[in-house]
């Protein structure tokens, strides 16, 4: 079970747990996990080696996933270290490519996708207000077009803007006696 969890945690798949393994020999298998005590003369071990599939103990995968950077050579079997290093390098390269692709995708997903809380549209960012104060102490970050406000606004306000949900609790608080009431502060405009 530990090996299965480690393989899944490492985004891997277990293709087979018992012979015959023939259909997997040419399918790009990264490692053959060999049980302790299996002799190197075993027919399947020889077949794995003949197909350049490194033979490792279960601890190889567990430590690879659970202890990154931990030396793995002690878990490589039947002198397949060169093959294991080649497979590991391939996996690490694939992980880096996936991480780079994910980073590029997240950089492409900028804040222009904020939708209007009233109409749901993500367009017209130039007239989209964002609920909150400049210092970030109040507001929920919701967006709303100036013409979707109730009542509609003619232009983007110069002060902070709060959506109706955030403005309501603020309106309930009464200013101390003798204090002047403050207007809504500067607005944030989508760029």
UniProtKB/TrEMBL annotation:
Presence of keyword Zinc: yes
PHD-type domain segment(s): 113-169
Keywords: Metal-binding, Zinc, Zinc-finger
InterPro entries in UniProt: At4g02110-like, BRCT_dom_sf, Znf_FYVE_PHD, Znf_PHD, Znf_PHD-finger, Znf_RING/FYVE/PHD
Residue span of region Disordered: 167-191
One function term, GO molecular function aspect: zinc ion binding
Protein name as catalogued: PHD-type domain-containing protein
Origin species: Aegilops tauschii subsp. strangulata (Goatgrass)
